[in-house]
Amino acid sequence: MSIPAFSTLLERLLYTPGRNAKLALLRQWFETQPDPDRGVGLAAIAGELSFRTAKPGVFREMIAARTDPTLFAMSYDYVGDLAETIALLWPNDARANAPPPGLAEVVETLELAGRAEVPGILARWLDALDSGARLALIKLVTGGLRVGASARLAKTALADWSGHPVHDIEEVWHAVPPPYTTLFAWLEGRGPKPDPEGAPVFRPLMLAHPLEEADVAALNPQEWAAEWKWDGIRVQLTAGPGGARLWSRGSEDISGSFPDIIAVMDFHAVLDGELLVVRDGAVAPFSDLQQRLNRKLPSPKMQADYPVQVRLYDILFEDGQDVRGLPFDSRRTHLENWAR
Length: 340
Fold this sequence. Notes:
The chain is an alpha+beta fold. It has two domains: 3-142, DNA ligase i, domain 1, CATH 1.10.3260; 215-339, D-amino Acid Aminotransferase, Chain A, domain 1, CATH 3.30.470. The chain is built from 17 helices and six strands. Strands 1, 2, 3, 4, 5 and 6 form a six-stranded antiparallel sheet that branches. The radius of gyration is 23 Å and the shape is globular. The model has no long low-confidence stretch (mean pLDDT 93).
């Protein structure tokens, strides 16, 4: 399927306010688009695409060579979005009747292209598109769609469309690379369930929920375990023969921001806990942890100034064995024995 079809999806997602309506649009995309294009669209919405040779700066240089700098500056100031500004200012080309590129074609071409080839390839595609499709192409390549559809929403739509529980989809999500052809084969009953065995994939965990004051009196203390609300973020540590990863509670891979945690994950387990900045045994304020979040390559000084630890709550896998079926108190005993 071509870029214009993806452009239509993005536009509808952007201007559709309701969650259920967005889910319906995504289900329709999965149902009507062919492989591998529907998987590329899914990867873009989930934020799983990245092109090392095609960054926003490349598009900025390309438009600078084609427009007056003052006009570009004024337009960018008015529009407020680089991708949209470039899409609107890009000059119409005589090759307007050239066929638009397909989603899979864009991915395959950019993955194989050298850095010097990329501007010419992108220019050829932009010349063949109208302003709406140009915007879709630029956002596909640079990321940051901002159409009100998250990775979680996309997985929920997959679950609704296929009839498979969303937690089953989350379990195999990171074991299948885009464009997810084996994932779609399983969801449609054409193939086996992808096996994440040995891969450091995210595993769904028990989330915290607010406790109403009226419910406290009805609780039996013998049936519950309590944890402090630490000033950090919930994380999952996954390590084994296939490597190590640190995941946020929403299954975002944040390993790159915390190489000091990854460096000590020489075990075979899946652990649930709270990521904290800790100095001299005392938990630092959340604002200190924020200094580390979203830093993809923290410097040694940053790591020393904001040292992090994980306070563990639970163990989900131990030495490759799934222990989630055990009662929590049994898992807690497993965790305490594991940590000794």
